[in-house]
């Protein structure tokens, strides 16, 4: 039986100047522009036919604060599809509290890279299906990597970064993905800092490299400009395609993306 491919809208949430949680959209994780209210957007995407929904607190890790659990609760009340929540999750207790607030899965990046045993502890306590390891990858054109791809005629590796892409770790993304899988991650959420917000398409070499290295389901993220980009991500091996800007600004609906994919033989839930 062929598994259907998933289309997942995502909201990046931060605290505005008045101290109110709000959705922001940016480019390369910077130049953030206010986009809307997280609870209202969650309601809209639930009604629009999204397969899942992702809520990312984009500055929690960088600022060393906890995820906005009260907002997560509000979002969880509005969505009746799987909800993944990420940002500021550093301990087993953080995982527990986020799931208790209504999340079905937690997305962990900085916390897992700093304390890899968190993956196994979380999977043992709550099930591997709850543990999504997020990777914020950045292209590097030097000789410090372990796995190389050809990108625009140059040899490139992908570095795992932390704190919303603000700090490099020196870890090769492909090797880190393999380790995360061995430790019990149930899913890998692959973001590209280079492609983020550009609408120029997913970083296909990155997506393909990770998909070829692991058997764990992979969510392709960053750079989606339209349905054809989702198709390319699925051709590269992704199990799900995440998008933000094209849905936030009404350039495409989830139904339009799914119809495009269905016409090209990609199994989707219509």
Can you give a write-up of this model?
By secondary structure, the protein is an alpha/beta fold. The chain has one domain: TIM Barrel. The chain is built from eleven helices and 13 strands. The protein has an eight-stranded parallel beta barrel with strand order 1-4-5-6-7-11-12-13, surrounded by seven helices. The radius of gyration is 17 Å and the shape is globular. The two termini are 17 Å apart.
CATH homology superfamily name = Aldolase class I
Compressed to H and E, one letter per element, the order equals: EEEHEHHEHEHHEEEEHEHEHEHH
Let me know the number of strands. 13
The separation of the N and C termini measures 17 Å
* Tally of domains: 1
According to CATH, what is the class?
A: Alpha Beta
Helix content class: 25-40%
Named CATH topology: TIM Barrel
Residue share in β-strands: 25-35%
Strand order, main sheet: write it out. 1-4-5-6-7-11-12-13
Q: What gross morphology would you assign?
A: globular
- Indicate the mean pLDDT: 91
What is the tally of helical segments?
11
Q: Profile the largest sheet.
A: 8 strands, parallel, barrel
From the 3D coordinates, which CATH architecture would you assign? Alpha-Beta Barrel
User: Any low-confidence stretches, pLDDT <50, length ≥5?
Assistant: none
Cα radius of gyration in angstroms: 17 Å
* Helix/strand structural class: alpha/beta
